[in-house]
Amino acid sequence: MIYPSEDEKDIYWQPNTQIEFADYQSSSKEDCHKYYEKYGVSMASSIGLRGVVDVPKKKGKFDKFYIAPVFCKNCSCILSEDSICLLVDRLLFDIAEVCARNARKELLDMQKEMNSDNTYTMFFTSIKNKWDEEMRAYFGTVVRDILIEKKDSAYITWKKTVDDVKLQMINYSTKPEDCYRFIINEPIEKGYIMAKSIMGDMRNKGEE
Fold first, then answer.
1. pLDDT digit string (tens) for 173-189?
2. Which residues fall within 8 angstroms of residue 30, CB to CB, at 6 or more apart?
3. What angle do CA 133, 137, 140 make, to 5 degrees?
4. Is the pTM value of this prediction over 0.85?
5. Would you call 96 exposed, middle or buried from its count of C-beta atoms within 10 A (0-12, 13-18, 19+)?
6. Cβ contact 146:159 at 8 Å
């Protein structure tokens, strides 16, 4: 089966997926005007990590998690086409994928260590939030370096760094099934339901 990685509202990260100018479909230009006045950029994207945990209806099976970077078409606006802004947003999408891979690795390693049927129900929120924060920090640095301060070779340097890390972590890539889980918005595994509640963020804020 070929799984779609895009619907009317969202584009989910896949290796051959590229954001295009036509994907910026927000009817509100408020964010765009705000960023244009502040930074002189004419496009504003909404990129994030989406995640969910599904649990078995009957005991004896492990819970399952899905995580995928998402570009929200309806939340992303454009005043005018800017090829550099588009390249940066594609780079940010790849950075979101790097963070998804790190979160996936942490969760899988934890499951391997604990061998518990509810590892993801317990720890998914904490680990996803951690990597969501890392992602936002990277976004801020990349946008500042390339679009605001316009540092020499900043895009080339960041692109190479991100591509290198993606390659190192290729075994933890977002799979088509991950994207499909969010597109249909229901479990894709038979005998599973979406967890009604999962543990919140258990990180000690003083240790971050």
1. 999 999 999 999 999 99
2. 77
3. 140
4. yes
5. buried
6. no
